[in-house]
Each structure stands twice: as structure tokens, then as C-alpha cells.
Design goal:
It is a single chain. This protein is of the alpha+beta class. The protein folds into two domains: about 5-110, no CATH class; about 155-225, Nucleic acid-binding proteins (OB fold (Dihydrolipoamide Acetyltransferase, E2P)). Helices cover about 35% and strands about 15% of the residues. It is built from five helices and five strands; from the N terminus they run H-H-H-H-H-E-E-E-E-E. It has a five-stranded mixed beta barrel with strand order 1-2-3-5-4. Strand 4 (about 200-210) and strand 5 (about 220-225) form a beta hairpin. Helix 1 packs across helix 5 and helix 3 (about 35-50) runs antiparallel to helix 4. The longest helix is centred in the middle third of the chain and has 20 residues, at about 80-100.
Length: about 230
Amino acid sequence: MMQADKAALLACDLFEAHVDPNEAQKALAYLRIHRDSAAYFMYLRTIVNDGRAVIRSNQTIGYYRELLSASERHLRHMAPHQMAETLGWAIRLLRYYRAVPDAERSRVVSPVGREPFPPRARTTPPVARQQPVSSTQTIIAEPAPAGPTVPAIGATFTGKVAAVDEQAVQVNVPGFDEEKVVGIMKADVVPGGTAKYRAGNAARVEVIGVRTLKNGRTVIELKPAPKK
């Protein structure tokens, strides 16, 4: 079965179990930071078994219980990057299903090869009539807009904190999807530890390293940068 099909099936299970996508996103952030399949499942089990020390809501504990159950059905025996990619797509679909409760979800069990994601209306743009070009007329093509560039070593920027734990802080890189480019600030370069950072807050950081993983994802290593 293709990863996309597994993501669609996982999304269906999470939707039927009424799992909050924001809680699933926190688990995804943990998986992306640690890149360890076993650590991901241990993280979920720890919250389910001992999470009442830090999570008072029974409903939230229930979200993680359902997420653990669905992950064990659909994400077992995957490499960490495959798990992260599959869970990421499942969360996107889950948000769609919650926003559009009547959306058709039967497509997720269609044969491999069919698009498992919500259908989009396909329209055919009208064909524009071409005007004849005179021999004295010069056609100048407008340059395509330049996309964002990955920050180089020594560059500083302010990004949104996506996730925090005792070992690292994940910072979103402006202009890039976190599936393609992610910023990681390890605890050993943060004076006083990572506890002073909070998910959702802004962090000013400096690039100290850039590396590309085998799956094509770029990891930018960071350290705190002085405030302007």
C-alpha cells in the first residue's frame, strides 16, 4: 500500500475517533525532532499511562490513546521519515474532514494508485485568442518570481517556535513548509535550557549549520541570536 493510502486511512480513523489535530501535531513535532520510531511510540504510551501528571483533561488523554491505537495500526514498521510524512498528510486530511464534515471519505479505501485526498473541482481554462505579432514587435518574457532561499550559515532570522522539549526547539523557517525545511536548536547551545521557549512564540536565531537528509529534507541547525 502506498504511503498516501495509509495516510488517508489513518486520517479516517483519527476523524472517527474525534482526535484533535492540534494534539496530533504535537506528536508529529516530537517525531520530527527525534527521528526515532520507537521513541515516538514510547512518547505516546508515556502520555497515555502517566500523562495525568501534566495533562488534566481526560478528553486530551483520550486523544493520545486513540492516536496511539491508530499509529500502531498504520505506522508500524515504517522508517522515521516515512512515519513523519504519513502522519503529516493524515493531519492535513483530518483538518479538512473536521472543516468539511460532509466531505466524501470513501475514496480512502479505493485501489492503490487512485488519489486518496479530497477531490478538487477540475476546470478547463478558456483558450485565449492569440493576436498576430507584427515583425517589428518584440516579445519580452517576464521573469518568474524568485522563491525563498535557505538561510546560509551566519544568517539570522525570526521564526515561529513549532515544538519544544528538553533536548531541542523546533523553529519554522519563514517561507518554507516544515516538511521541506526545518530549523532545530539543540539544548546544548541554549543558555539556561529550552524551557524558556514556548510553542507559538517567536524566536530570533542564527544559522550554525545546514544539512540535507536522504529524503531531501533540509535541516538547519540554529542557536539563539542577539535581539535587535
